[in-house]
Design brief:
Chain A: It comes from Ancylobacter vacuolatus. Chain A: InterPro entries: Cyt_c/ubiquinol_Oxase_su3 (IPR024791), Cyt_c_oxidase-like_su3 (IPR000298), Cyt_c_oxidase_su3-like_sf (IPR035973), Cyt_c_oxidase_su3_a-hlx (IPR013833). Chain A: Keywords: Cell membrane, Membrane, Oxidoreductase, Transmembrane, Transmembrane helix. Chain A: This is Cytochrome o ubiquinol oxidase subunit 3. The structure holds 2 protein chains of 2 kinds. By secondary structure, chain A is an all-alpha fold. Chain A has a single domain (33-209), classed as Cytochrome c oxidase, subunit III, four-helix bundle (Four Helix Bundle (Hemerythrin (Met), subunit A), Up-down Bundle). Chain A has 6 helices and no strands. Chain A has helices at 18-55, 63-66, 69-96, 99-130, 139-171, 176-209. In chain A, helix 4 runs antiparallel to helix 5 and helix 5 (139-171) runs antiparallel to helix 6 (176-209). The model of chain A has no long low-confidence stretch (mean pLDDT 94). Chain B contains 23 helices and 2 strands. Chain B has a two-stranded antiparallel sheet with strand order 1-2. Chain B folds into 2 domains: 54-541, Cytochrome c oxidase-like, subunit I domain (Cytochrome C Oxidase, Chain A); 603-646. Chain B is an all-alpha fold. Chain B has helices at 3-7, 16-22, 26-52, 55-63, 68-99, 109-143, 152-174, 199-227, 240-272, 285-318, 326-339, 355-367, 369-383, 392-415, 417-423, 427-457, 463-490, 505-534, 536-539, 576-583, 604-620, 624-642, 653-669; strands at residues 596-599, 648-651. The chains are: A mainly alpha, B mainly alpha. The interface between A and B is large, with 40 and 41 residues.
């Protein structure tokens, strides 16, 4: 099979590292499948939220009363910029194999990601203390916290993963396994963007608009 | 330090034996007896392992292994152990229902509730799932000419998560109670208000562990089939068992997530006061019903499709004929896989949707019977004109065709919402799904064991005892479940622990008789295995092809070497091994051998399983330090593993060559056995192909060509 036939969605090592590219085929395909099953999980959480945010309000507050659109918008920007930074880290890895460059971009990615998680936790704090809207208040809020919380948990585990990858880049350097792990982490990170766009649209924008 | 900080909610009364001491009754005695069997069984295993000095081999050769073949065997071992427990529970329930007409019987209502909950949970998640997973793990890579699955370590981790779940369920026999909410655990009954104890938590975490394991298995097997097929093995040359494995894997990837979501939501309701499925505050149990059956219905096909694959292999092999309608079987399998996501609502026709919604799902349900019907005709037509051998797997197959069609008919009846309203929640439904799962899945797995056992262990199973076991299982099933159709139509509700209608008694007695026969069948099956191990010298078939097989797995020695194929085969047709035998080019030496890389054994998977089990136990009993520590340790193991670099070892070409040439020489030197002598000790695993019947059975040897 020629190299071009083995291309997979996302960043490919084909041009710069043929050996790594060959090893990537199976691993990256497997990770795409994993992402798909993870997205099924999010789809289920979205569906639950869709039902609960209409039928599950009970005596509790309505979506428009508790959401802070400005904060959600800033969070969106933080996450998108962190994804952009990760993209640059991957290009640095592919074309220069420059440890320092990759580490700097990873650090930026991680800081933006951590800021995202921090802001989200702050949102939760505000909702619980100022709007009396903890997850125990209603079915709607249970579904809201589960959906956004699962996303935040994914981002947080991505951050832990990123720390480990930074250590591996620094200690081990760009061996094929390390490269493939970075590529998978990048896909994971970008998928979380996609999910967040869904959350921003359906939970926040739609919730405040309706 | 106080007690609750260390032991959470465990008290001495949590132990099953406390119930017997404080409140002696027959029901408590049975519970204590079951607990004792679990404890004594574990103790006996420990003693046996110590006395025989098997701890080191167990750890070194099995638990730390990432070889798909050993993983597969361990899955099936779990399934058989759990089957023993769940089938005994079934017999107890039958006895209780027989004894409890106008009286209380001998079990308490609560104990009976735990029995039907564990029976269902175990049979689905810890018998059927590990059975099919083990079989797919073992057979599929051999059928596609691969050396292992795509992610061998992930495979071992899936196994260990499943094992952790199974151990958790066994622990619930001794420490605490299990859920009484049935295998589907509908809230609000399973919510904290109505089930305050630890029972539902046992269900939640055991099922969650199994569910995560299955998701990872599905991913792994699907990638293996897409990426690891040997040269020439195009999709439409794959054996049908591999096709059904692919469809089941895809279903697992999509269907397990809703279950995980549902169990997590139920857990949040119970542990943290959320309101997903509670009665008030905006909770809605219908969301649970939808999520659970969004998993639950595809699950039915996750189980049955691999069995369909087994039936396709068995019927072609034992009819000595190419499978009829290969392409239609593939399309039928795919249709079933897709449609299985479009029928989940038929599990709750009576729960309040409009008639139109019910009608749509009823029609979808009836449609799914069509591809299944296609398959039945294909199997029947495969037999037409074939030379059929009535060996044990074939007996199971014929029994399957007869009884599965009857079960399918009752399924079409139930697909009509009008009929469903009449018989829902009765024993008619219980009869229906047992009628699908026992002759379909369970007997399919039994047939698979008979069929592939010689491949796995290098000797055949005792045929006479296999047939004896079949002749208990098959009529036992009919007797145990067909009366339930009648009882259901008479109005007997499911999960009922005492009756007031004496008309039920004769039917219940018949069902009890059937349960007895099933137990006898199981006893005979265990006997068959023991006797076969003892007589393994006479039953030996090390040359790998005892049944005149068709796919690649029969072309290698039994048991297969760690590397499966000395040289990766190159196939050019369906049934490649059968075609090679027909053309007289089987067992030829390959032109050259190469070094083979295989993954090293690692303690990663068993450690993850151990900590996952401890984590779940900590959560069940609110032992927070244990839950937190185990959770952290799971990830410490994963991270530590990512720093390991020396994860593969090389088997030198010379070793592979010596082993393979010895096998090929033995195969060429042994005269092929004809089909009528297949069950005699002449059968050393070298078949005289049916296709060559009447011709001289010599096969050219020595010429070096690309190996098959």
């Amino acid at each position: 099979m020629s190299l071009s036939e083995r291309l997979h969605p996302g960043l490919n090592l084909a041009g710069t590292d043929p050996e790594g590219h060959e090893a990537a085929e199976e691993t990256l395909f497997g990770f795409w499948i994993f992402l798909m099953s993870d997205l099924v999980l999010f789809a289920v959480l979205f569906a639950t939220y869709a039902a609960m945010s209409v039928q599950g309000i009970a005596e509790g507050p309505r979506p428009a009363e508790v959401f802070d659109l400005t904060a959600a918008f800033v969070e969106t920007l933080l996450l998108l910029f962190s994804s952009f930074a990760f993209g640059l880290a991957m290009l640095e890895m592919k074309y220069r194999e420059n440890r320092r460059g990759v580490l700097v971009w990873l650090l930026l990615t991680g800081l933006l990601g951590a800021a995202f998680v921090g802001m989200e936790l702050h949102d939760y704090y505000v909702m619980i203390t100022q709007h009396a809207a903890p997850p125990q208040a209603s079915g709607f809020l249970s579904a809201y916290y589960l959906l956004t919380g699962t996303h935040a948990l994914h981002v947080s585990s991505g951050l832990v993963w990123m720390v480990i990858m930074a250590v591996q880049v620094a200690l081990i350097g760009f061996t094929t396994p390390v490269k493939l792990r970075l590529m998978r982490l990048a896909l994971f990170w970008h998928m979380l963007d996609v999910v967040w766009i869904g959350i921003f649209t359906f939970v926040y924008l739609y919730g405040v608009a309706s | 330090m106080n007690w609750e900080l260390i032991f959470g909610q465990i008290k001495w009364t949590s132990f099953v034996f406390a119930g017997m001491i404080e409140n002696p009754s027959l029901s408590e005695a049975i519970a204590s007896g079951a607990g004792s069997i679990a404890v004594l069984g574990a103790l006996a295993t420990v003693i046996l392992l110590t006395v025989k000095g098997w701890w080191v081999p167990l750890w070194r050769d099995w638990l730390t292994s990432v070889d798909h073949k050993k993983v597969g065997i361990m899955y099936i071992a779990i399934a058989l152990v759990m089957f023993a427990r769940a089938v005994i529970e079934a017999a107890l329930m039958r006895a209780q229902q027989l004894a409890a007409t106008e009286g209380a019987g001998f079990l308490s209502a609560d104990h009976f509730g735990q029995l039907f909950s564990t029976h269902g949970t175990i049979m689905i998640f810890f018998v059927a799932m590990p059975f099919i997973t083990g079989l797919m793990n073992y057979v599929m890579p051999l059928q596609i000419g691969a050396r292992d699955v795509s992610f061998p370590l992930l495979n071992a981790i899936s196994l260990m998560l499943t094992m952790a779940g199974a151990i958790l369920i066994m622990v619930s026999l001794v420490v605490g109670q299990f859920s009484t909410g049935g295998w589907s655990a509908y809230p609000p009954f399973t919510g904290i208000d109505f089930s305050p104890g630890e029972g539902v938590d046992y269900w939640i975490w055991a099922v969650s562990l199994g569910s995560i394991g299955s998701t990872l298995t599905g991913l792994n097997l699907a990638v293996t089939i897409y990426k690891k097929r040997c040269p020439g093995m195009s999709l439409f040359r794959m054996p049908l068992f591999t096709w059904t494995t692919l469809c089941t894997s895809i279903l697992m990837i999509f269907a397990m997530a809703p279950l995980t979501a549902a169990t997590v939501m139920l857990a949040l309701d119970r542990y943290a006061g959320f309101h997903f499925f509670t009665n008030g505050d905006g909770g809605n149990m219908m969301n649970y019903a939808n999520l659970f059956w969004l998993f639950g219905h595809p699950e039915v096909y996750i189980l049955i499709l691999p069995a369909f694959g087994v039936w396709s292999e068995v019927v072609a092999t034992f009819s000595s004929k190419r499978i009829y309608g290969y392409t239609s079987l593939v399309y039928a399998t795919m249709c079933i896989a897709v449609l299985s996501f479009a029928v989940w609502l038929h599990h709750f026709f009576t729960m309040g949707q409009s008639a139109n919604v019910n009608a749509i799902f009823g029609i979808a349900t009836m449609i799914i019977g069509v591809p299944t019907g296609v398959k039945v005709y294909d199997w029947l037509l495969t037999m037409v004109g074939g030379r059929i051998r009535f060996s044990t797997p074939m007996l199971y197959h014929i029994n399957f065709l007869l009884t599965f069609i009857l079960g399918g008919m009752t399924g079409v009846l139930l697909a009509n919402p009008g009929v469903d309203f009449q018989v829902h929640n009765t024993l008619f439904l219980v009869a229906h799904f047992h009628n699908m799962i026992i002759p379909g899945v369970l007997f399919g797995m039994f047939a698979a064991v008979q069929f592939w056992f010689p491949k796995v262990f290098g000797f055949r199973l005792h045929e006479g005892l296999g047939r004896a076991s079949f002749w208990c299982f098959a009529p036992g099933f009919l007797l145990a479940f067909f009366p339930l159709y009648w009882l259901g139509m008479m109005g007997a509700t499911r999960r009922t622990y005492m009756w007031s209608n004496p008309d039920y008694v004769p039917w219940l007695a018949l069902a009890m008789l059937g349960a007895g026969l099933i137990l006898a069948g199981f006893a005979l099956m265990v006997t068959q295995i023991v006797v076969s191990v003892r007589q393994r010298a006479q039953l030996a078939a090390p040359l790998g092809d005892p049944w005149d097989g068709r796919a690649l797995e029969w072309s290698i020695p039994s048991p297969p070497p760690a590397w499966n194929f000395a040289v990766l085969p190159n196939v050019s047709s369906q049934d490649p091994f059968y075609e090679a035998k027909k053309a007289g080019i089987a067992y030829r030496s390959p032109a050259a051998y190469e070094d083979i890389e295989v993954p090293r054994n690692t303690a990663t998977a068993p450690l993850i399983g151990l900590f996952a089990c401890a984590w779940a136990f900590g959560l069940v009993w609110h032992i927070w330090w244990l839950a937190i520590a185990s959770f952290v340790l799971i990830w410490v193991v994963v991270i530590a593993r990512s720093f390991a670099t020396d994860t593969e070892e090389t088997i030198p070409a010379a070793t592979v060559k010596a082993a393979n040439e010895a096998f090929l020489a033995a195969a060429r030197a042994t005269p092929g056995v004809t089909r009528d002598r297949e069950m005699t000790s002449d059968n050393k695993g070298r078949a005289h192909p049916e296709a060559l019947e009447g011709r001289a059975g010599t096969i050219a040897s020595g010429t070096a060509v690309e190996a098959l």
